[in-house]
Amino acid sequence: RFAHQLFGYDPGEMVGKSIQSFVPDRFAEVHLQHVADYLKEGESRMMGEHLDTAGKRKDGTEFRFRATLSMAKTPIGSLVTCVHRPIEEPESRQQ
Q: Residue 43 CB: number of other CB atoms within 10 A?
């Protein structure tokens, strides 16, 4: 899926928004610290290394996803890419 679909936006609506717009409010402070630490360390996470986290859709609902990060240093600063994969919730068992 594309990020805009995962987060419930129309194509282009996410452009220019802060990453914090997509983080549940209760995790905002912790997320900012994680981002600062990641940028400070300057290390890319190898494929297969990931972080399970929560996202906030446009309508305010939350969902769990797995993020894999990669960073590249450029002449104008660091470029961070993130691959998001939703974590499917287990289906209720019928008895």
A: 10
Yes or no: say if 79 and 72 are a contact pair by the CB < 8 Å rule: yes
Give residue 94's pLDDT band: very low, low, confident or very high (50, 70, 90).
very low
> pLDDT tens digits for 18-42?
888 999 999 888 888 888 887 777 6
Q: With helix as H, strand as E and coil as C, how does 33-73 read?
A: HHHHHHHHHCCCCCCCCCEEEEEECCCCCEEEEEEEEEEEE
Contact 64, 87 (CB under 8 A): yes
82 by DSSP, 3-state: which?
strand
75: three-class secondary structure by DSSP: coil
pTM (two decimals)? 0.69
Give dist(CA 68, CA 34) in Å, integer.
Answer: 14
Q: What distances in angstroms separate CA 68 from CA 16, 50, 81, one per listed residue?
A: 21, 5, 8
